[in-house]
């Protein structure tokens, strides 16, 4: 069974809007963080590239059917566990990531 085309369009459009909002939040966090100008620009460009590539990879995997249910081992957990694990490692290992998280208002973090 496939979903109607309008559902696919709504999901893709809302995903792109969410990506844009997250990028705007990243820009605000970088502006508030205690970083010099060169580091801010590098952090914003790197973060934006990683978010867009992550979205493209998730979209490609979903188009290939990687997240569909099947009798073999479930794969949807990778879409949940891997981003959390990557975030934990980044916060643990990167001073810049810690500064960005510290610069984000708590209400935004709770919303995520």
Helix/strand layout:
Blueprint: H1 5-32, H2 37-63, H3 76-93, H4 95-103, H5 106-111
Instruction: Please work out how many helical segments DSSP would assign.
Output: 5
Overall radius of gyration: 17 Å
The profile of the biggest β sheet is: none
Count of discrete domains: 1
Estimated share of beta-strand residues: under 5%
Estimate the helix proportion, in percent.
Answer: over 70%
What is the chain-wise order of helices and strands? HHHHH
DSSP, total strands: 0
In the predicted model, the low-confidence regions spanning at least 5 consecutive residues are none
* Spatial gap, N to C terminus: 32 Å
Q: What class would the helix/strand composition place it in?
A: mainly alpha
* Overall pLDDT confidence: 85
| Shape summary | elongated
Tell me what the structure shows.
The structure is a single chain. With 112 residues, this protein is mostly helical. The protein has one domain. The protein is built from five helices and no strands. It is elongated.
């Amino acid at each position: 069974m496939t979903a109607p085309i309008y559902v696919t369009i709504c999901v893709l459009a809302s995903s792109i809007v969410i990506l844009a909002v997250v990028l705007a939040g990243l820009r605000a966090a970088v502006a508030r963080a205690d970083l010099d100008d060169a580091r801010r620009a590098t952090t914003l460009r790197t973060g934006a590239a990683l978010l867009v590539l992550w979205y493209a990879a998730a979209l490609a995997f979903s188009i290939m059917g990687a997240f569909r249910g099947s009798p073999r081992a479930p794969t949807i957990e990778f879409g949940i566990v891997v981003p959390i694990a990557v975030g934990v490692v980044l916060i643990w290992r990167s001073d810049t990531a810690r500064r960005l998280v510290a610069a984000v208002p708590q209400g935004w973090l709770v919303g995520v």
